[in-house]
Amino acid sequence: MDGLCIENLKFPGMGPITLRVGPGACVGLSGPSGSGKTRLLRAVADMMPHTGEIFLDGAEANTMPAHQWRRCVGFLPAESAWWHERVGDHFPSPDADGLRQLGFSPDVFSWEVSRLSSGERQRLALLRLLAGAPKALLLDEPTANLDSSNTARVEAMIAAYRRRNDASVIWVGHDPAQLRRVAAIRFILHGGNLVRQASDGG
Amino acid sequence: MEDEQAMQVISLSPIDLSLAALLVIGLALLSIPMRLQLSRQLLVAGSRTVVQLSLIGLVLKALFDHIHPAGLAVVAAVMVGVAGVEIMRRQKRRFAGIWGIGVGTLSMFVSSFCVTVLALTVVIDIRPWYHPQYAIPLLGMILGNTMSGIAIGLDRLTATAWEQRAVIEARLSLGFGWSEAIEAIRREGIRSGLIPIINSMSVVGLVSLPGMMTGQILSGTLPVEAVKYQILIMFLIAGGTGFGTILAVSLGARRLFDDRERLRLDRLRS
């Protein structure tokens, strides 16, 4: 079974959730605030206690050390955090192409993190995540702080990454129009369960 | 001649001590019109000084009269236990359950006892090594300082981890191992526990005369002998504090994560 398979995932207030995201597929996930979208992504990334099994390309999460699992599933939190003084220190190697695609000049790597706007942080956090080449992406509102042109840049970059790497993507978002654009299959999280939405987008 | 000089001790009478106590009482009285609201605390603390030190004096006298490892073990256990509770009390956010008292007490126990026993058996080479005249004061000096170092280090660790949970989790979600994810915070915790002893080693003799050395000189020891013991004590304190703090902060950092390397701040109580 290739791709990301979630089987009977449960934690208090959630599930059981069973969901398969094939290689190169993107599943959209929305729901009211407090419905547990973020917690669901955190559980898939094994950042919080839960029961059930999660497979990535046939390998179950518990069969490998947690940090190795997280390197594979690529969780992007809604709020990015930075710990070094300069932007570039957070990246293993400079990725000039990626910077350009997201609308940055290469000298952003020498900037101080405190100079960044929330939108700049969000875009750079995506680039930082992709630098680790995860096989899946768990995106928590990846364009929440962005204007429409930067939203388009981020959508294009994620789509290109998904196709190039056959990555399985779960995209949590609030904007129905955006989810229709980026995800062929969409769910609403309601009462701790996934409710599939019509595939024509209604 | 020298021996004779070293033996000279002016015994303090209760009247002498009462005169000194007038200082505390005077301070307490002054605090009433100044509304410092400290008079009660001053008197209670002053009374505790008298009672606690008198008791330990009686205990030490009894121990000196009957030199036996069991007596030493009981006194040492009480000292470690009280210090362990004190470490826990000084934590703004402490570990829940047995870990709250366990991390600090275990680290303090291992570090202080190793250093004290090492000093008694190898450095001072007193026979028997459990002779309370050496063991109790040494353990007391080392415990007191190790306790402070561990309390500061652990408090810094848990407070910073709490503040910087987003950074720790961001590092975890990028695939850092738990140890790497908290590395900088653990290092700062250890550093903050060690800096006081480094500072006091730097200024000792120039700015401060340590209480132990002062006491020894006042009670008749030759200054050169008192100095040698003070150097020994400083090194023992540095070792005890340093190794104890490293152990406690490392154990505490591990306890902040579970077996799946998740940050578990729910294991802290404020």
Short overview:
Chain A has helices at 37-44, 66-73, 96-101, 118-131, 148-165, 176-182; strands spanning 4-11, 14-21, 26-30, 51-56, 59-60, 75-76, 136-140, 168-172, 185-190, 193-196. Chain A has 202 residues and is α/β, with parallel strands linked by helices.
Strand content of chain A: 25-35%
Broad CATH class of chain A = Alpha Beta
Shape of chain B: globular
How many helices of chain B in DSSP terms?
Answer: 11
List the helices and strands and how they pair.
The complex is a heterodimer of chains A (202) and B (270).
Chain A: E1 4-11, E2 14-21, E3 26-30, H1 37-44, E4 51-56, E5 59-60, H2 66-73, E6 75-76, H3 96-101, H4 118-131, E7 136-140, H5 148-165, E8 168-172, H6 176-182, E9 185-190, E10 193-196
Parallel strand pairs in A: 3-8, 3-9, 6-7, 7-8
Antiparallel strand pairs in A: 1-2, 1-4, 4-5, 9-10
Chain B: H1 2-7, H2 14-31, H3 39-65, H4 69-89, E1 94-95, H5 98-123, H6 132-163, H7 165-173, H8 178-181, H9 183-203, H10 211-218, H11 223-255, E2 268-269
Antiparallel strand pairs in B: 1-2
Helix pairs in contact in B: 2-3, 4-5, 4-6, 5-6, 5-11, 6-9, 6-11, 9-11, 10-11
List keywords for this structure.
heterodimer; A: 202 residues; alpha/beta; Rossmann fold; six-stranded mixed β-sheet; 10 strands; 30% helix; B: 270 residues; mainly alpha; 2 domains; two-stranded antiparallel sheet; 76% helix
